[in-house]
């Protein structure tokens, strides 16, 4: 199972799909394996060797055409490279005799919400006991908070988990967390020793990152522009730019990591100003992607 890594929505989507498939096709000998997928120059598309199981699913990540792909769920506007790719995918699913399933809705606020809705409406599977998990994943992915500080300072257990997965959500982490999400309440899981240990350094890192954003950024009209290309700061927490620059309508952040140069673009839903641009479309023109309200472009060639 391939899912968007370092992402609360990707984590929860994998847990929901695990429950869905286990209910639709119960098998005592089935083994679930999870792989974290990240957008960037190192992963323009899913490598074919990753689709090596008897059943293969891609969740909350860009589409990859392969006869071995049996399930696909996504809600990103840039899930398909072009409308022609989407039509081809739908045609091949229609001609698969039910072996392949594709569920795509760019109007859905999160992939977790999409999976929950499709499970109930299409497959008659109510994902009972996971409703709170779906709500939190949806809330984080659609930025439904009263202000950015609610999310940034992560006071709720689910937001603590979201903070940790955004920093540590590699393949190994997903493999450990997803089975637990299906068995334990979010508040209980967020208080486990592993999560507590990973949470400890985050508060200090957030203060450092906020200070870095404020010193490196400036408002240009109603756009917060932050150039972090000269260093390798560690990003800490969603919506940090809107905590640092609460009046901006948009943010543009250039960030250099050890592996890539990344441009992140976002709309500030707390600005009180109307969004006038489709950010996903802008980023897709430059080889990136995302949603109408947030997107990014990464370039490994620019890293020295």
Summarize the topology.
Layout: E1 2-4, H1 8-24, E2 35-37, E3 57-59, E4 71-74, H2 83-94, E5 101-104, H3 111-121, H4 131-141, H5 148-152, H6 157-168, H7 171-181, H8 186-190, H9 193-199, H10 202-216, E6 217-220, E7 223-228, H11 240-244, E8 250-256, E9 261-267, H12 279-285, E10 289-290, E11 294-299
Number of domains: 2
Q: Distance between the terminal alpha carbons, to the nearest Å?
A: 33 Å
Largest sheet: 6 strands, mixed
Oligomeric state of the chains present here: single chain
Provide the low-confidence segments as ranges.
Answer: none
Q: What class would the helix/strand composition place it in? A: alpha/beta
Total strands: the figure is 11
Q: What is the string of helix and strand elements?
A: EHEEEHEHHHHHHHHEEHEEHEE
Shape: globular
Q: What percentage of the residues does DSSP assign to strands (E)?
A: 15-25%
Share of residues in helices: 25-40%
The overall pLDDT, averaged over residues, is 91
